[in-house]
Amino acid sequence: MIKKKTILFKLCKIKLTDKQLFDSMHVSYEVCPSCGAIGCCEPHGSYKRDLISINNSVRTDDVIYIRRVKCTSCKSTHALLSDILIPYGSYSLRFVLYVLRAYLYRRSTVNALCSYFCIAVATLYKWIHLFNKHANLLLNATMQISWVTAPALDFIEEITALPSQFFKQYNFSFLQNTKQRILVLSPG
Fold first, then answer.
1. For 132, what's the count of Cα atoms within 13 Å in the CB-facing half-sphere?
2. pTM of this prediction?
3. Pair 118, 109: CB distance under 8 Å
4. 185 domain residue, yes or no
């Protein structure tokens, strides 16, 4: 996978929809993550993927096409993923953070919240767990958290280019389920 930087400013200040951000992603000379060759990645098709995002406080469901490239040097193929997408899932990063903020302010029950956003209760609690784990990685010793809090969400949403910085530092995406990543990458 090749992560493409599409969020150039603070996540909470973006006026474009996640689909518009995805569609604005530019394909340029890529560095092959397998062999390190520069500019050797050529178009190699695409595949459909659902994108669940938030627009004006309402869940939106779109279909997007993920572009693939093939390295002419080592023949490996890679998907070009925008940093607004969480790998191996349909939900956008902004959607997950929006749901977490709605959960934090507890304006409705967990069941009502999950029903409104059409997600399973288990999914919400998985996101809470991943947010805590990944935010603590990012915050390190400066501000450890034990639960989703408004200051932690504010801090995360205010980081310019959070997804790209996090991926570069940890080699997996913010809120990506790393257990899925290990299963997908493991042989057999």
1. 12
2. 0.73
3. no
4. no
**Strand residues in 74-132 grouped as ranges (E):** 77-82
**3-class SS of residue 77:** strand
The domain of 17 spans 2-175
Three-state DSSP state, 79: strand
Assess if residue 187 is contained within a domain: no
Other residues' Cβ atoms within 10 Å of the Cβ of residue 93: 26
List CB contacts of 69: < 8 A, sequence separation 6 or more.
Answer: 2, 27, 30, 41, 42, 43, 44, 77, 78, 80
Distance from C-alpha of 96 to C-alpha of 124, rounded to nearest angstrom: 9
- Distance in angstroms (rounded) separating the CA atoms of residues 173 and 50: 18
pLDDT band at residue 13 using 50, 70 and 90 as cut-offs: low
Distance CA 28, CA 95 (A): 27
